[in-house]
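DM from R.C. (forwarded with permission)

"hey, sorry to bug you on a friday — could you get me a structure for this? deadline for the figure draft is monday and I only need the backbone to look sensible"
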Amino acid sequence: MKRALSSMFMVGSLMLAGALPGLAHAQDAATAPDAKAGEQLFVKGDMSRGVLACVTCHGAGGNSTIPANPNLAAMPHEYIAKQLRDFVPQGDKRAVRTGPDGAPSIMATIAPALTPQDVQNVALYLSQQKLDWKTAGTAQHEKTLERGQHIWRAGIADRRVPACAACHSANGAGLPGEFPRLAGQHPEYILEQLKLFASGDRANDIMHDIADRMTLPDLQAVADYAAGLR
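My reply, with the result:
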């Protein structure tokens, strides 16, 4: 991993990350997204195309009760659509979202079967759902609270790690269309994604250049803190 990323490149990457979802959204939608069709696919899948029912792993309305699987309820439409596309290899290049050591994730067998319209429909449906805070993820380790809070609010200056709140907001709500909500996400899932960013196995935004500068205790602390935000 490159550790000498210039501030100019970082700013440019942030601007590009914000612009791409909207552009891809416009390109993908053959017709207006249909939340009802998205719900149908989410709840029942389409076995004729090998599309499993999303509800099996992500729970009713996108409220996952399985720590390894993310809560998707109320995530921004554009963000969900981008992530679904990023599980799909482009030409002879591997997908920019893979599992540990570049192994295909479970989504690698599902996302390629989705049409651009499917992606927009499911993304719209999930964006309209409400996160169930009663079953949402939360902080679990009081001993790391102070460290997690410091990284979230101030970053780690001597390693050029920016404050998480700068992109994901002070309360973890994220920035719609650009950066995801982390508040209420399962801490186990957040930690796994940070590890994948650090290793470069998930390389679909600037996080792989940030997580690589953090120690495992740093990642654990901030993942737990983020989950507990409300």
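R.C.: lifesaver. The first helix runs from residue 7 to 28.
me: no worries. The chain has two domains: 19-127, 135-227.
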